[in-house]
Amino acid sequence: MNYQETTEYLFNSTPVFEHIGASAYKEGLDNTYALDEYFGHPHTNFRSIHIAGTNGKGSCSHTLAAILQADGYKVGLYTSPHLVDFRERIRINGEMVPEQYVIDFVEEHKDFFEPLHPSFFELTTAMAFKYFAEQKVDFAIIEVGLGGRLDCTNIIHPLLSIITNISLDHTQLLGDTLPKIAFEKAGIIKQGTPVIIGEANDETRIVFEAKAQEMESLIIFAEDIPMVLSASMSSDGGLYYKTRLFGELQGELGGLYQIKNTNTILTALSHLHNSHIIKNIESIVKGFSNVCESTGLLGRWQKIQTNPMVICDTGHNEAGWMCLSQQIRRQKCKNLRIVFGMVDDKDIEGVMALLPKDGEYYWTQPSTKRAYHVDKVAATGKKFGLHGKCFTNVGEAYNKALDDANKEDFVFVGGSSYIVADFLNLLQCN
Question: Which 8-state DSSP code applies to residue 371?
């Protein structure tokens, strides 16, 4: 098989959450343990940092990876979902795993794993751990796929755990209350391993504290002693930060939600610096200012062009849109044009309630089978006083928005990671 055939095999022969949703989710770690034993327990050959949370995992993971790289380490990065290329999920110092490695992994080991019927994520996780071990990374930043307690990444024994925040998402799998979801996320807290909590409320704090006490783990709530003293927008779309311990920083990543992410990251960095893992403060400055180039991060308030300004963002739930909607409203523009669609396991009404009322909407749907049909998206928008035209794919919606826009307009593309994925694939093909 060539690379395209191999990725099609992975997508089509294993249950893929991104394609079919909850039915791809497997409770329990039996397959993961079987794969881990078969490959010789590769995760024991590198130090790791484990990151869970409803929102902000990707930004935190990539920023920490960029900083560790700047400090001279060889850093593995395992994230999901990918937007353009499957190999985005598995990187070392920003470089994606080679196509040939993916091909060889499947060809050489499918006789073992096919009888197991692993999920796509279980198999991809095994591939990532094997690759990181073989390449002798110094650290691997491991992002939880879904939840935490039963996630297949949860076999690692990290030197630090991070839980960014908790909000209502994937409720059909993780629970329909914040304490239930917090319980699942808290499952990544390991015996004696420090844990950073980015955001918490009274309901979730007690869950985290109980788990940390059970595991005899130091727990640090980033909000208790904020590391970010102030933040302001920079002219290039990023953010300037004044910080408690690290002076002034220029963050490349834009979006108001990055302020909370940065507070979580800086709290983690304080621990890593005190542990003599981060040796140079200059590495923190460099990493924050160079995240995308260092790690290949896509889709976080990503600027596509100017005149008109075009931004895409993967925010996909109510918690994410509370910040995104503020950010969009702050844009100085003549007309606001929004290309928007969602997938069917998200709270579409909760998000719609937050969308700007003065925008011209280009309703659409991603190419995944899990998409809300564009007619449903438009009908729900109408309930909230939002009006626009319907398009059956992202390309048509975006091209129309761009045709309608003048140089002073602002065009936003988002609502789902899958909308952004279709959009970025469109740009790559043009």
Answer: B
Strand 195-197, strand 219-221: pairing: parallel
Contact 347, 168 (CB under 8 A): yes
Residues 209 and 106 in one domain: yes
Q: 376 with 340: CB under 8 angstroms?
A: no
Q: Which residues make Cβ contacts (< 8 Å) with residue 237, sequence separation at least 6?
A: 254, 301, 303
Q: What is the pLDDT of residue 369?
A: 87
For residue 62, give both structure tokens: 């990539």
Q: Say how far apart CA 159 and CA 270 lie, in whole Å.
A: 14
Residues 374 and 277 in one domain: no
The pLDDT value given to residue 297: 96
Is this prediction's pTM over 0.85? yes
Domain boundary among 242, 273, 295: 295
- Confirm if 192 and 215 have CB atoms less than 8 A apart: yes
The answer on 266 and 233 residing in a single domain is: yes
Is residue 219 over pLDDT 70?
yes
Whole-number pLDDT of residue 370: 86
Residues 367, 286 within the same domain: no
Least confident of 59-73, 172-186, 325-339: 172-186
Task: Tokens for 281, please give them.
Answer: 């403060």
DSSP per residue, 211-225: HHHHTT--EEETTTS
Query: What pLDDT does 16 receive?
Result: 54
